[in-house]
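Subject: OsmC family peroxiredoxin structure
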Amino acid sequence: MEKMTKVLEQIDVEGLKDLVKKAETTPENYKIVSKATTVCRGGFLNETYVRDLNPVVIDEPCHLFGTNTTPNPSEHVLAALGACLSVGYMA
């Protein structure tokens, strides 16, 4: 079996430190308001729109009366948690 090595992109440490300093001195410029709109497309299939990005499509597995075409809400929460932990770890 071949061993695979992955190299992660380097974090701009100085840029991150600069961002933290700016946020500490002028926090009013760094407040974030997050908005999302969810639309039910029928059954348990939903689309959530965030900013001007493609929709996040959410479904349920067949045994929960969905069509099993995309991750369910719990799986999206786990994915979000994993991404947050990864970003925190890298920073």
